[in-house]
Amino acid sequence: MKGLFKIIRRYVLTAMLITALALSFNFALFCLWGLRLSDDRHSISVRRQIELIAGELKEKDGGYRMSEEGLRRIKGSVFQWGMLVKGDGQVGWTYELPPEIPRSYTLADMSVLSKWYLKDYPVFTWTCGDGVLVMGQGKESVARFNLEYSVQFLDHLPEIFFSTVALNLLLVFLLALFFGYRFYRSLRPVAQGIERLSNNEAASLPEKGMVEELSRRLNRTSQILERQNRQLAKRDNARTNWIAGVSHDIRTPLSLILGHADSLGRNPALDKDSRRKAQAISRQSMYIKKLIEDLNLTSKLEYDAQPLRMEEIRPASFLRQIAADYYNEEMLGDCQLDLAVDENVERAQIQADKGLLTRAFQNLIGNSVQHAPGCLIWIQMKREGSWLSFLFQDSGPGIPPEAAAITEGRLENPNIHVMGLRVARQIVAAHGGRMEFALRDGKRLGVRLLLPLSSEENVNV
């Protein structure tokens, strides 16, 4: 839901930013437009133009004459024609005067034309001696209005301007908030649906409004995921039941094989070669039994069906006991085992399920015994920050890259079996740790297990 509030906040801020930019742009455009109008005709205003033209009109020999400079200014101005109305109302000088323009004027006529139009021509006036210079533009070239403002209005103009801007901004903000809230209400069910899907729950959204298509797609996705989950659950249940059934069915004949093989291996009446074969049958049967147990265990760990019986243990003595069991029960074959424990972790403690951790350690040692006969196995235990590190290495060819990739879930290959590594990795993960492959010269020569130390151990060790 926090994401939706972020959306509406950004929506409102964006709307306000757009409004501010639009107002700034309009203000700049208005100023530019006014500057362009005032800058027309050689950057001289109309009043200034007529003033300069009037300065070039001189009285001479009882009449009026425009200088060459004045004529040049007229041609370069906005005016198309001009005339001088003398004090007696008669026209004393003309320039391109249209035929419909009168040649004499009363005082009332002068009062009117000085503000508005003359025969639909916009005109501008300027005092010139005892007369009035009248300059005209083309019809429909200028719109003239007579505007009046009180002094009080002009005094309050800044206040009015800023109040108007503030009201506009407030209006835009309220509109943005209103539409943003509507947008938020439309998206809220979608966000709730996505949250339910992320929690692996079914989602059923109302398919209406602006998010109708999105809601429809989410509902369809929810149905697909629900159907897939049912199929996966059905498949997983079938696999679990199959594993449990096979394990149960094979347990009795495997026990008989182990019992008879062990009896034959100890029978002094048999020759040495027969007893050796019986012992080989016993070892392989034990390996089959271990594989079945690993298969059951990995299935339970995968679905969190294996309860953890956690207790405080000291891995140093625990690891030495496992090494001793391998020597006492002659499970190393031709291999040798070298165990090194750092002094600062001799009394270190961890919370662990002793049985599961034993299985993880036995799987890693057993892999070296099975896949690298006659090798030297090194086990090193030390501390790495708040973790306890267990490094398992051997002098064999190393772990194939495909086996490592399958163990880490990056590859699938039914022809390569990594049950021992997979079970070890699952057990360590169930204890809140992780398993890594130890590299040297680009080869995976071993496995490192990292398990968290007890909280008291993190302080005292």
Structure notes:
- This protein is an alpha+beta fold and 461 residues long.
- It contains 14 helices and 14 strands.
- The chain has four domains: 2-38 and 150-186, no CATH class; 45-136; 213-299, Helix Hairpins (Orthogonal Bundle), CATH 1.10.287; 311-460, Histidine kinase-like ATPase, C-terminal domain (Heat Shock Protein 90, 2-Layer Sandwich).
- The protein has helices at 2-38, 40-43, 46-55, 68-75, 107-113, 151-155, 157-198, 212-266, 272-302, 315-328, 354-371, 401-407, 419-430, 455-460; strands at 57-60, 63-66, 81-85, 91-95, 117-118, 121-128, 131-136, 310-313, 336-341, 350-353, 376-384, 387-394, 434-440, 443-452.
- A five-stranded antiparallel beta sheet has the order 4-3-7-6-5. Strands 9-11-12-14-13 form a five-stranded mixed beta sheet. The protein has a two-stranded antiparallel ribbon with strand order 1-2.
- Helix 3 runs antiparallel to helix 4, helix 7 runs parallel beside helix 8 and helix 9 crosses helix 13 (419-430).
- The radius of gyration is 50 Å and the shape is rod-shaped.
What is the end-to-end distance? 44 Å
Strand order of the largest sheet: 4-3-7-6-5
How many structural domains does the protein architecture include? 4
How big is the Rg?
50 Å
CATH homologous superfamily designation of the largest domain: Histidine kinase-like ATPase, C-terminal domain
Secondary structure class reads: alpha+beta
Which CATH architecture of the largest domain? 2-Layer Sandwich
**Kindly state the mean pLDDT as a whole number?**
80
**Main sheet properties:** 5 strands, antiparallel
Order of helices and strands: HHHEEHEEHEEEHHHHEHEEHEEHHEEH
